[in-house]
Write a structure and sequence with these properties.
Strand 1 and strand 2 form a beta hairpin. The chain contains five helices and eleven strands, in the order H-E-E-E-E-H-E-H-H-E-E-E-H-E-E-E. The longest helix has 9 residues, at 61-69. The chain has helices at 15-18, 61-69, 82-88, 98-101, 134-137, and strands at residues 24-30, 33-39, 42-46, 51-55, 71-76, 106-107, 116-117, 122-130, 139-149, 159-161, 167-169. The protein is α+β, with helices and mostly antiparallel strands. Helix content is 15%, strand content 32%. Strands 2-1-5-8-9-4-3 form a seven-stranded antiparallel β-sheet. Bound molecules: flavin mononucleotide. Flavin mononucleotide binds at residues 23, 35, 37-41, 55-57, 60-62, 86, 89-93, 161.
Amino acid sequence: MPVAKKSDFPVSEVRRFMEPGPIVLVSSAHKGERDIMTMGWHMVMGFEPSLIGCYIWDQNHSHGLIRKSRECVINVPTADMAAKIAGIGNSSGRETDKFEAFRLTPVKADEVSAPMIGECHANLECRLVDSSLIRTYSLFIFEVVKAHARKAPRTPKMLHYTGEGIFITSGRTVNHRKSFKPGML
Ligand SMILES: Cc1cc2nc3c(=O)[nH]c(=O)nc-3n(C[C@H](O)[C@H](O)[C@H](O)COP(=O)(O)O)c2cc1C
């Protein structure tokens, strides 16, 4: 790739390049209430135990349900669910039951009381294991205690967000397995 001429751009817009993903749907439940929120800001923090850090804004209704129940399910939707993903991320569970509003099927999880979303490709049952960064950064650290996924395809078409209402869909896979050390796979 040649060195290209570039223009400065506002640091507040770095999400165009740095948004992680895939976009997921986080389901939660506490004392008879349930909710779903859309989430893009998460990162894998370990394999064994299986840890995932998630930014969950304190203005989201889900924030309180998850902080109190100390559980949630991270559901991985496919790109064809984009309209529901955008709608869920632009409405509050304070006024609506999003399972009903977006016609999604709650499925009983094995290890946590939060419902899984039946239509999603994968469901990761999570327990809060570290709450020390919630107050300062709204950062929840979860351990995945049970994971479910459809058998095929191995890598579904997922969504990544770039801001301004624009998503990128994941597509072609590239295999560089032979360049990897065994411990890095
Ligand atoms: C594409 C997309 C990505 C989002 N990512 C996050 C995120 O990573 N963390 C977060 O707290 N909110 C995120 N949101 C916003 C919440 O999904 C949104 O505030 C939602 O209405 C919260 O629902 P609730 O109040 O029922 O919990 C995202 C929204 C969209 C549309």
